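Appendix B. Raw example, untouched.
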Amino acid sequence: MKMVLWISFYFISFLVLLVGAYLGKDALFEKTTSVPVLNYTQYHRDAVVVDSSYTEKIDSLAVVVEGMLGELAEYVSQLQDRDFEIAKQKYEIEKLKNENTSLKTTKVKTEEDKVIYNKAQEDKKLQDLAKMLGSMKPNVLAPVLKNLPDRLVQIFYDKAKSKDRVKIFNALPPDRVGKILTDIAD
């Protein structure tokens, strides 16, 4: 029941509003025609000129405005072309930056690979030399090891097989073996 009352109240209010607007339309139109902005000639009678120079001025101004609009359209076109070129250059710069970082990482990897390769080659050479020293007889091995520095003998000892390690130490004097073993322990 309350719902019906509210709906009827809103409906009647809407009808009263419509009837009031319909009855007051003449007063509303009178107010809008008396606004100075809408009725420009009422306050500026000199603005309306009947002679042909007025229409010529308007036509010439229209031509000037059209020319300016054409120039403006041309400038807008140039700006769009420039924006396109800038975007294209930004894309190229970004592409070159990515390529540069890729090349740098590749170069670093290549340099690291070279270092790893060189180290592997050195290890292989040292192992081959240690194997060769291990294959020598003790009477030949002793004079060779006598002329080598302790650090190098230690490296050969590290790279040699266990049976060859014994041969290396058997070919050296006991005091030098003790010094090398102390260095290895440190």
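End of appendix B.
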